[in-house]
């Protein structure tokens, strides 16, 4: 089995330097060399080092460039792909990858919470699990996956839930879709796949900014003034099932007349509603004012989806249809 590994930096690759603190210093070959047992898997790894950055610095364009190279790798015969990166933005990059990855070959993201200088560094175990999943035939046709702590999560559902725990990745609405048990990949559920979205071009990304606004107590929307002049879309993370203060509702309605505005929940799990509550600022009111329901999508995912659609040239009807289909 051949697996291509793309190393993008993050804590998994960070060690100390003279200026103090840890920074990305290890390349893909170093990460591989630190994994006991990798040779015994029989997987042959082709290692690439596109960049080594904290994942806060990654951009949509950089991730899509890596996916282009990953597509070339599978076209050249790779049975799967592993991407190592920082965990901070991993749920967004893996979700973006899942939206546009059309291939059957597994595309598996992983990283680490403890850097290699710490006792109990988790990078080697996570990398070994990710390689096993990428090389496993049963992981084909599942889109992008996240392998962490011997759990396998679907990129569609995964979330970083803790700032420092090695058990940070969870899928609040589902749970893990599988496990790596004694080195064996055990998938527990099938995953329905949607038709892949077109890979947005750099010009489309540059021309389409999507803001994310988290609603909080007594929010009157002053911070949203002028947003439609600088952004092409907005995701709102509302209270509970999709509620906002009454004063904010007309502000959002006005914005929805100019740009797509997607309603999600700031709760982190569960769906926004569309047709239950009747007060001003409730989900029914916001739907009536033209907002798009984000369903079960987390706000970060909704933002990735909306920007991907806008950058790919989708019009308002198409955006509404895709959200209806995927949320
Ligand atoms: N700040 C780091 C990053 O995302 C955290 C990590 O890798 O876990 O690059």
Automatic annotation (TrEMBL):
Domain Asparaginase/glutaminase C-terminal: 209-323
Recorded superkingdom: Bacteria
InterPro entries: AsnASE_II, Asp/glu_Ase-like_sf, Asparaginase/glutaminase-like, Asparaginase_C, L-asparaginase_C, L-asparaginase_N, L-asparaginase_N_sf
Signal peptide, first to last residue: none
CDD domains given in the database record: L-asparaginase_II
Ranges in a coiled coil: none
Any Pfam family the entry gives: Asparaginase
Entry keyword set: Hydrolase
L-asparaginase N-terminal domain mapped to chain residues: 3-187
Family per similarity comment: Belongs to the asparaginase 1 family.
Protein name: Asparaginase
């Amino acid at each position: 089995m051949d697996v291509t590994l793309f190393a993008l930096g993050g804590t998994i690759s960070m060690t100390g330097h003279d200026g103090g603190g840890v920074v990305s210093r290890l390349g893909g070959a170093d990460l591989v060399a630190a994994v006991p047992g990798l040779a015994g898997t029989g997987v042959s790894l082709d290692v690439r080092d596109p960049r080594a950055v904290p994942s806060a610095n990654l951009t949509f364009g950089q991730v899509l460039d890596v996916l282009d190279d990953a597509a070339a790798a599978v076209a050249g015969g790779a049975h799967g792909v592993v991407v190592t990166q920082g965990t901070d933005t991993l749920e967004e990059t893996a979700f973006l990858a899942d939206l546009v990855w059309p291939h059957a070959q597994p595309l598996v993201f992983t990283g680490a919470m403890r850097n290699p200088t710490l006792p109990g560094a988790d990078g080697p175990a996570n990398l070994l699990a990710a390689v096993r999943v990428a090389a496993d035939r049963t992981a084909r046709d599942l889109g992008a996956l996240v392998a962490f702590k011997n759990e396998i999560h679907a990129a569609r559902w995964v979330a970083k839930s803790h700032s420092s725990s090695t058990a940070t990745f969870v899928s609040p609405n589902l749970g893990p879709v599988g496990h790596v048990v004694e080195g064996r990949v055990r998938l527990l559920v099938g995953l329905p796949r949607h038709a892949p979205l077109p890979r947005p071009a750099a010009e489309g990304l540059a021309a389409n900014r999507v803001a994310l606004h988290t609603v909080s107590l007594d929010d009157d929307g002053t911070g949203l003034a002028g947003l439609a002049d600088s952004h092409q879309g907005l995701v709102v993370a509302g209270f509970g099932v999709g509620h906002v203060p009454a004063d904010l509702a007309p502000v959002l309605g006005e914005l929805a007349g100019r740009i797509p505005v997607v309603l999600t929940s700031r709760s982190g799990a569960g769906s926004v509603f569309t047709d239950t509550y009747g007060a001003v600022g409730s989900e029914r009111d916001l739907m009536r004012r033209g907002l798009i329901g984000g369903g079960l999508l987390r706000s970060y995912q909704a933002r990735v989806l909306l920007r991907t659609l806008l950058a790919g040239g989708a019009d308002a009807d198409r955006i509404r249809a895709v959200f209806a289909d995927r949320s």
